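Schema walk-through. Below, the input block comes first and the output block second. Nothing else is stored per chain. Lengths vary across the set, and this one has 301 residues.
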Amino acid sequence: MIEIKNVCKKFDRFEALKNISSNIEEGSIYGMVGSNGAGKSTLLRVLAGIYKPDNGVVEFNSKVVYNNPDVKKDICFVGDELFFLPGANLKNMASFYKDIYDDFNIDKFKELVASFKLDISKNIGYFSKGMRRQAAIILALSTNAKYLLFDETFDGLDPVVRRHVKNLLYDKVLQGETTIIISSHSLRELEDLCDHLILIHQGGLVLDSDVLDLKTHKFKVQVAFKEDFDKTKFDGFEIINFVKQGSVANIIINGNKDEVYDRLSSLNPILLEILPLTLEEVFIYEMESLGYCCKLEELAM
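--- output ---
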């Protein structure tokens, strides 16, 4: 297990991470989302042992990661800004990675290069943005590192390649003890990929939840009554968002779906429908509750 314990990180006067705590289970895919500049990349670099927390600690199976080669040898980090040796091709980079990772699988590397249809001998500097991202993913998956950390993994990838990458990540977790930590602005990509999700805003942890639990305990309710009503009619419910248009209210509620349905039914509505939320909608409503950005209705305009 990876334990993030009260981690804080400052850069000059800017506080990038504010008392972040979370646990990452072995063999899971753990997703990070957040507003621009929320602290996702900083947290990934703390997890990779690149940055030392100003306060708090990150432990991999009770071993501190920072300045600990025994832990770092099991970690491969692919940052948002990719790095390759000047003038190198994929074959050169494979040799470089093989010198760092004892379990680098050259056969797996060749298999992945063929599946992405990349030229192993071509200077990576001449690759497109998406091809460079593919090259970084190939190298990371070939390391056989126990922990794979990806920052904006799907950036620059077309839909076909994104699906291929997701399948590879699934397979990597299913085949062994690999744990994957991934940040992305694409909630739709993470929705069917991650087991667990955290939401970071302005350096603080807003939400930390199992994805299945998140999708089953936050939902949209459409309800109407014969008589006029307002939000006070729903006192006692954990309401995240309330919008009434005409006689119909659209409400985002947190709670047990069956219990909420039974309680609302007892109010004798003439319309009652419970609809699932996507992770993107959950993100928007959570951020809206913090006063961030625009209303959900405006995004559809």
